[in-house]
Amino acid sequence: MDASEVIRRLGGTAPYDVVVAHATQSSLRRAVRDGQVRRLARGVYGLPELPVPAAAAAATHGVVSHVSAARIHGLRVPTAPSTVHVTVPPGARPPAAPQVTVHWSRLAPTDVRGGVTTVLRTVLDWAVTLPFGEAVAVADSALAEKVLVKSDLIVAAYAQPPRRRGRCVRVAEAADGGADTMFESFARALLVDAGVGGFVTQLPVLLSGFTVHVDLGDPHRRIAVEAEGFEYHSDKVAFARDCERYTELAASDWLVCRFTWAQVRFRPDWVVDVVRRTRRLRAPQLRRHLATPRVRAGVS
After folding, report:
1. What count of Cα atoms within 13 Å lies in the side-chain half-sphere of residue 5?
2. Where are the domains of the chain?
3. Which of 146, 225, 255, 273 has its CA 20 to 30 A from that of 54?
4. pLDDT in tens, 204-239
5. Model's pTM, two decimal places?
């Protein structure tokens, strides 16, 4: 995989060791040489800056939309944009502009505010054009930031044209504003997409003398799924606190699955498989009965 695509999937910045784990060193050097990737600091790389969204929209006679609109609205996005996204009316022929991705769609007056698609329209556009996990992550962010109400999202999803309705409804019904981070939201969407249910976001678990909130928890099987970011164990205090947290969970008969952002993004099948295998360890045990009825001792 190209180094710039690896960094884009990881949110726009990534440490050197994570990049070369999924792309070659020569790919990273070539991306830096060609200007596709910038060296931000020692051992840290990122994507180059994009044009100003408003200027890109004006150049194409459109409005800012999709991931560019999501970032303007302050929503968490799981993938850093490599271009500015704008939407123009069907049949329009906008002039070519560098680092600009053009979408053709009919927008109602209520879909646009200040040259940018509204939060509701932006979430619905993501549901149509992007993978399920990324679309759910953005919808979760809009609900968590309280800039969108789930009932409004569901109503709008069912009101979409037939070609958009199915994907919009699926994302709207799966959306949950309880995730604390975009990483947690994306991990939950990955499990939902694979048909693995039963997990609750930020589930409170009462341990010995204190309560912790696991990222995703199955209260019936006592399984926790934890999302670990790059900043994990950034100091000794955090390291000690997390050791205590996971030890107490284990002592309270909880099974904990811990995944990194890179594992969720680049090894999703393995993540789902691990969670499924862990769930089988806690599957309800069926009571076995004798096949033949008992016969009382004695002479008939």
Report:
1. 8
2. 3-46, 53-174, 182-281
3. 146
4. 998 887 889 999 999 999 999 998 765 544 567 777
5. 0.76
